[in-house]
Amino acid sequence: MSSHGKPKNQQTAQDADSRAVTEAALFEAFGGVRGMVETTVPGLVFVAIYTVKRDIHIAAIAAVGLSLALGIARLVRKDTLKHAFSGVFGVAFGAVFAMMSGDAKNFYLPGMLYTLGLAVAYIVSSLAGFPLMGLILGPVFKENLSWRTRNPGRKVAYTKASWAWGLILLAKSAILFPLFWWGDATQLGWVKVALGIPPMLLSVYLTWIFLSKAPPPIDVFAEMEAAEAAEREAKAAAR
């Protein structure tokens, strides 16, 4: 028997199910490996072309074109478009900023500012008792904000995950901004590409670890449906 009074094999099966559900939710929320690639490859194309051609316009147009192609591919496959749209918007904004300023480093500035702002948001929200990771994943797990008042173990896990994301993104910003100020465009571009996927994978992995060890989410949607069904049955019995 386990420490919770359940057979060991039953407890193991429940833990495996919990880990699987958590993994699926994280992939849905953050786009999985494909989403990470889609946000990294346009920047790789930009810095590669700029390194060879030294032409901001050609590099920017190629990056935007690739980002649009990736978005269209998702549309054709009827996949979720939220990650594709965010990628297209971010790449297009950076491309316009770089072409208007004439400085290739500015292609990366919007994304860097977004990363820094997100890091601050994760940390501040954790300090305020509303960890951002809980606000992001609560609807995915169908628990909404029940983790704040009814499931303290989930709140602790979301707080730890938000701190992990915040500190990792702050570390990433601490590397990139000095390069933006004192390095050249190619140095900044290649380092930014190298720091695209690994920090996110680490953040997602730590989030998975924290949540897989937390209590299961409370399905508030199922509760509401059950309450509505009970109310209908009560009304039918009263007739």
UniProtKB/TrEMBL annotation:
Segments traversing the membrane: 56-76, 83-100, 112-141, 162-183, 189-211
Q: Cross-referenced Pfam families, in alphabetical order?
A: DUF3159
Q: Which domain of life does this protein belong to?
A: Bacteria
Question: Is this entry keyworded Acetylation?
Answer: no
Q: Say if the entry is tagged with keyword Manganese.
A: no
Keyword terms of this UniProt record:
Membrane, Transmembrane, Transmembrane helix
Under which name does UniProt file this protein?
DUF3159 domain-containing protein
Native source species: Streptomyces olivoverticillatus
- Highest lineage ranks of the organism? Bacteria, Bacillati, Actinomycetota, Actinomycetes, Kitasatosporales
